[in-house]
Design a protein that fits this description.
Elements (H helix, E strand, L loop, with lengths): L6 E4 L5 E2 L15 E4 L31 E2 L4 H7 L3 E2 L3 E6 L5 H14 L4 E5 L4 H10 L8 E4 L3 H10 L5 E5 L16 H18 L2 E6 L12 H5 L2 E6 L6 E9 L7 E7 L2 E4 L3 H5 L10 E8 L2 E13 L7 E4 L3 H15 L6 E7 L11 H13 L7 E3 L2 E2 L5 E2 L4 H10 L4 E5 L17 E5 L2 H9 L3
Parallel strand pairs: 6-10, 6-11, 7-8, 7-9, 9-10, 17-18, 19-22, 22-23
Antiparallel strand pairs: 1-2, 1-3, 4-5, 11-12, 12-13, 13-14, 15-16, 16-18, 20-21
Helix pairs in contact: 8-9, 9-11
Length: 460
């Protein structure tokens, strides 16, 4: 048997090295390279080894709809695509203390009350500690099985010896270890190996396996990047710990839509669903305050209205400050450059602060026009038209481009009592988004960003 060769791997990015080094060449991390002893391998790989034949089937075959287990929490069911698919693997990641364990304990209790067999395995807490949290959340009567274990071998042996559960929650994957690997729990090899064994169990038994993943200080899931490729669905739990709102976002989903979100509110009794997040995000919206614009956005299939706040102040520094919360700082720089070059505004020498109220993070380009409106309002000191919403993409030449699902945005704004919409010019060639009004709103069409500056500077 050939001797095992030495291998060194970075615990931050998973890069392999031929020898130990103090600094990883791939990610630049210091003191992150450790030795890993791989499993013994047969010389010359698989030469001479006989494997079993696999079955090859035709592309056209009998379609069997994927069986889904409805959780019972509407916001969570929305994000995963209508329920949990049997035999699938989920990865739920988020910052420490954001509520990952809380929402999964609530989901497991809801499934158990619905008749599903659920197992909650914690590698960080004892069963007594989980019971304390369950009593605080009002879930003590749920028929849920608990265990505290970190050995993947022991976990799989116990799960296969009993009746196969419907849902298995592992909290967290960074605490699991495989005894055949000579590395500490949480290392790249341990996370990859433990996840592979648990996912193989899910595919073989038909159980739904939900893995909790920690994140690094950069917001990335700790461990190898391949972990996100191995699972079927990746969910990120977002939100500021100082805010009570939490956003569950699907960034990968093999059995449902991506970029779908679920909104929750953190309370003393756990996380509560928010069926109408627009009304909640706008609960403290000031009607006659300069620098505030209401953006009509779309997250997945859900329209969400949120307030964007801007503050422009004279700078006493050589390099003016830019502070952005909830939006892309690069797009802010682009919008400011267009306002300076195409509209004649002088924003470059001022400190600019931009905030998306409520802790929501916006990524779609349709927020460009709302950000520009907030900046124009802030520098002029004049509030936007009362009861108005804004959306549209800004081009580098100053033109306002159309965005998707305009009718959905307008209907949501009308439902919440808004009366006016500042939006891109619509085409006059068809129904819906192409000419016919989709909601009883006064629509102000804007073709260029200079038109918005003129509108907000003139008498209204």
């Amino acid at each position: 048997m050939a001797a095992a060769t030495q291998r060194y791997a970075c615990q931050e990015c998973g890069a392999s090295h031929g020898k130990w080094t103090g600094r990883c060449d791939a990610c630049g991390g210091w003191n992150t390279v450790v030795e890993e002893i791989p499993r013994e391998q047969t010389p010359r790989g698989l030469v001479g080894a006989a494997g079993r034949r696999i079955e090859l089937v035709e592309l056209q075959g009998a379609d069997r709809p994927a069986a889904r287990l409805v959780i019972g929490i509407d916001e969570l069911d929305r994000v995963v695509g209508g329920g949990l698919v049997a035999g699938s693997a989920f990865l739920v990641a988020g910052d420490p203390g954001i509520g990952k364990s809380t929402i999964l304990l609530q989901a497991a209790a809801a499934c158990a009350r619905g008749g599903a067999a659920c197992v909650y395995i914690s590698g960080e807490e004892s069963p007594e500690q989980v019971r304390l949290r369950a009593r605080r959340l009002g879930l003590a009567d749920a028929p849920l099985k608990l265990a505290a274990a970190t050995s993947v071998r022991d976990i799989l042996t116990s799960l296969e010896a009993a009746e196969t559960p419907d849902v298995v929650i592992i909290d967290s994957i960074q605490t699991m270890f495989i005894d055949s690997l000579d590395s500490a729990p949480g290392s790249v090899a341990q996370v990859r190996g433990a996840a592979q064994e648990l996912i193989r169990f899910a595919k073989r038994s038909g159980a739904v396996v939900i893995l909790v993943g920690h994140v690094t200080k950069d917001g990335q899931i700790a461990g190898p990047r391949v972990l996100e490729h191995m699972v079927d669905t990746v969910l990120y739990f977002e939100g500021e710990r100082s805010h009570q709102f939490r956003i569950l976002r699907a960034v990968k989903n093999r059995f449902g839509p991506t970029d779908e979100i679920g909104v929750f509110k953190m309370t003393d009794a756990g996380l509560r669903e928010v069926p109408n997040p627009s009304a909640l995000f706008l609960s403290e919206h000031g009607r006659d305050i300069s620098g505030a614009a209401v953006f009509a956005g779309v997250e997945g299939s859900r329209p969400v209205l949120v307030e964007i706040q801007a503050l422009v102040a004279p700078s006493s520094l050589g390099t003016p400050r830019r502070a952005v919360v909830g939006w892309d700082s690069g797009r802010l720089a682009m919008v400011m450059a267009v306002l300076d070059a195409r509209c004649g505004l002088s924003l470059g020498g001022n400190d600019v602060y931009l905030n998306v109220a409520g802790g929501l993070k916006i990524s779609e380009p349709a927020a460009d026009l709302a950000v520009a409106a907030a900046l124009i309002s802030a520098i002029s000191g004049r509030p936007l038209p009362a009861n108005s919403v804004t959306f549209g993409e800004v081009g580098l030449s100053g033109e306002i481009r159309q965005v998707n699902q305009s009718d959905v945005r307008l209907k949501e704004a009308a439902k919440l009592g808004f009366e006016k919409a500042l939006m891109p010019r619509r085409k006059k060639t068809g129904p819906g988004d192409h000419g016919e009004p989709a909601a009883p709103l006064v629509v102000v069409e804007i073709a260029r960003l200079a038109d918005l500056v003129e509108l907000l500077s003139g008498d209204r």
